[in-house]
Amino acid sequence: MNQQFGDATGTGSSFVTVSDGTQIFYKDWGSGQPLFFHHGWPLSADDWDAQMMFFLKEGYRVIAHDRRGHGRSTQTDKGHDMDTYAADVAAVVEALDLKNAVHIGHSTGGGEVTRYVARHGKGRVKKAVLISAVPPLFRKTEKNPNGVPQEVVDSIRDGTAKHRAQFYKDITIPFYGYNRPGADVSEGVRENWWRQGMMGSILAHTECVRVLSETEFYDDLAVIDVPVQVMHGEDDQICPFSTTGAVSWKLLKHGTLKSYPGLPHGMPTTHADLINADLLAFIRAS
């Protein structure tokens, strides 16, 4: 693996080049205990702006990357599977020599955290957080009868592959719960979601729908031996609480659940103050 660094003290951004030649973009700011943020489909490290700024001021070292094919990372046609996503994270962690880290994942990023911690985290991970995350399984199957129906998954993949510019505008409405009575709609937040999505590769995003919907995390959750907090909005219209958050924490050895009545999938943005405070409390807890 070739490694390219920004500022080794944790105050910059650069790329790590992994074994297949893909360049993974990352931000690395501050010092102190490292917090590594994993974004959801089809976004980028920028989706963690509210958390990166908050925790930087609290004295933490904050790191976030763009998944392969997303954001500023290489728009490769290779490696669109959860094992490779996790291996890419491991490469960034190794390059930055992160230890005692807390890994925090939103949506698909929560699946990435789960696979990374289970496969690569031993000796480097202190805690993990899954926010509005896809584990243990997103789509409806015999094993997961309350999951998202395959026709819904197909519509997401079709919208991404065939008319993503409009589809990405439309999906921001349920993503942030802006279709609920009394919702405080922010056009800036919607446009920022669209901006991040359109930065990435249509191929990577289309394949990522398959990955996030089909990957099972039952075995990963069962072997994780560090404390994990599951945080999930009960009005999540993307990753339904009843089939993801309400299930995943029970499969963990040291899992806890913090659920939020009425909050949407994108609650780290819409309710950043609340989510940041709860994250801080979990990170600081002994």
UniProtKB/TrEMBL annotation:
- Name a Pfam family for this protein: Abhydrolase_1
Q: Per the UniProt entry, what species is this protein from, by scientific name? A: Rhodanobacter geophilus
Q: Which PANTHER family match?
A: HYDROLASE, ALPHA/BETA FOLD FAMILY PROTEIN, NON-HEME CHLOROPEROXIDASE
Protein name per its UniProtKB record: Alpha/beta fold hydrolase
Q: Which GO terms describe its molecular function?
A: hydrolase activity
Q: Which residues form the AB hydrolase-1 domain?
A: 34-241
InterPro entries in alphabetical order? AB_hydrolase, AB_hydrolase_1, AB_hydrolase_fold
Q: Which SUPFAM superfamilies match?
A: alpha/beta-Hydrolases (SSF53474)
Q: Which UniProt keywords apply?
A: Hydrolase
